[in-house]
Amino acid sequence: MVNGEDEVTALRARVRQLEKINAALMDRVERSGDMEGGAFSMFETAIALESVVRDRTSALEAAMAELAAANEDATAARVLLRDAIESLSDGFALFDADDRLILCNRAFLKIFPAVEPISGDSPEFAEMASRVALTGSTLGAATGPDRWLSDRVDWHRRAEGAHVQALGDGRWIQINELRTSDGGIVGIYTDITSVKAEDARQRALELAERNLALQATLDTLSEGVCLFDAQRRMQAWNEGLVRVLGLSGKDLMRHVESHAQLVQWCSWRLGLECADSLAWREGDTRQLSADCLMDGRHFVIRSVPLGNGGMVFTFDDVTDHVSLQRSLTETAELLERRVEERTAELVEVNRQLVEAKNEAETANRSKTSFLAAASHDLLQPLNAARLFVSAMDGLKLAERPRALVSQASTALDSVEDLLEALFEISRLDAGAIQPEVADHSLGAILHALRVEFAPLATAGNLQFDVVETDAWVRSDARLLRRVLQNFVSNAIRYTEAGRVAVEVTEIQGMVRVTVRDTGPGIAASDREEIFGEFRRVGKTQKIPGKGLGLAIVRRVSTMLDHPIGLDSVPGLGSAFSIMLPRVEPVAAPKPVEQPSALPTGNGGLVLVIDNDPAILSGMEALLENWGLEVVTARDPSEPCVAAALARRPAMAIVDYQLDDGLTGEEAIAALRARTDHDLPAMVITADRSEETKARLAALSLPILNKPVKPAQLRALLRQRDVL
């Protein structure tokens, strides 16, 4: 509509311009005729003027036609716009840049009827708002017209969107005002009364649901709860409060309607001792609690001020808790007395245990001492017997005596093996053997095993295979070798024909060493029994055993934490295995230079010192059979010893345990002190302890354990160039 009016205005201005031009041309023609008076000139001028006038008149007629058409279009557009605005159910109002009303519809005037009398005079918005304020058409205008007028004009001029106004007749209007491109304001006024009513209904429904939920929540509490408003009137309570106060639901509001009545009921009817716990507090937001006695029961009463000026009180019945606490206190006191009594008893028991422990340690030390003494006392006659038998074996005897000597030697071997196993088991049980765990080459241990048992396997017509390996393991080399020796010796002892093999397998950071044979196998029912002492299964032994080897294996594997395994099929053979921790290889130590052979005297004289005459006789007989000259003595101070030292003996063989507490190492040191040279010497002992071995090894003294095996003695003498 605005564009149509602008076009009409422009056309009118153009028509006025053309009329002025036409008038100017007519005036010029008239003045030209007066000045010159020439007929021909006037004729030419008249012709030219007529052409111009005709053109201008045509242009003017066209402009007038366009003007009429534009006016009709503008009028039609205005009618259409008004019809469209009037068809709106919402109120509509349009204000120009000067904030004057240009156009509005009937819906707008129905909302604000006070504006209708001046709506046709293009009033300013402030004038319209003033009329609304004077009539009190809105709730805000009715309660404070000046304040409402100021706020309404301010909202209108800012034109920042929607706000809501409540009318005096109960309706609600949403006003949405926005600024136009030419600086005016357009407003839409929507009746939202039904929306407001639905919103209020929903809010009421939500509030009711909340109240129901709150009441249900309160009723689930075991404590009694009551809520008072700012006027100290009771607004809510639960079933717990009814029980606490001893009232029915109907009588509660009749007797306890206000806070004062609650205090009165609790104090006078129920005998509340601490009425201050129900005091009304204003301006204090803390939660307070108090332990009280009421109606013969214990309560914890808590009070919480609310932000709206009200308060909440809770009554928590803790009678059972107090009774339980008292019971617990009494029980604790009783337990404390019993603990004191038991502590006194435990102190006495502990004292007895300490005494028992000391007695056990003393007994263990006595056992160890007994083992050492027993080993010496048992092995002394056995050693003498071994020497005598070995001496007889070197003589030229008839066939029958030689067979008897061989049988006696075999019997002595059996006794030696039995005693050695018994001593080893006893030392393991007594804790006298402490493992020395280190990193070792498994290949070196298996190589020594191959050298040791190859002759025995060959004698039994068995194939004996030991795998080559570069694996290293963490273990005690001596104890591990003992386990593998027992595995191999048992395999050779029980296998009549076929093969005995030592295998190595690496499994997830572990190394498993397996000794596999083709012997008779072991039944499942016997597999646990064979690890006991003196337990032997089957009778097919080429070499008699005592049933102690696997008992030693079990003790050693437990001590080293090396699991052992057994896989056997009767009739097909057995496989004993041990699991070892795998370690990275260690650089092999540099070979130690062997000391040069010790100087020997005349190469034929041997000095033997032992406090047992039988051993001296046996040693003398054995060594003389080997072609050596022998000097024997029971003590290093005997005159014959001095005479022998003067002849520079080739070897001194000294017993470790002599009379008067003298040890073999001390005797050798005394002998060497009496000579002008380093006397070659060896020690013979029944003491198999690691301490003794380490001490003699540190002195570079060779050791032979009793009973002395002649082959070992002869090899040592040959090594020292005595034989």
Automatic annotation (TrEMBL):
Residue ranges of domain PAS in the record: 210-253
Q: Which residues form a coiled coil?
A: 1-28, 332-366
Reaction catalysis annotation:
ATP + protein L-histidine = ADP + protein N-phospho-L-histidine
Source superkingdom:
Bacteria
Q: Which Pfam families match?
A: HATPase_c, HisKA, PAS_7, Response_reg
Which Enzyme Commission number(s) are on file for it?
A: 2.7.13.3
Record key words, sorted:
Coiled coil, Kinase, Phosphoprotein, Transferase
Q: Which intervals hold domain Histidine kinase?
A: 373-584
- Domain Response regulatory positions: 605-721
Q: Which residues carry this modification: 4-aspartylphosphate?
A: 655
The name of this protein is: histidine kinase
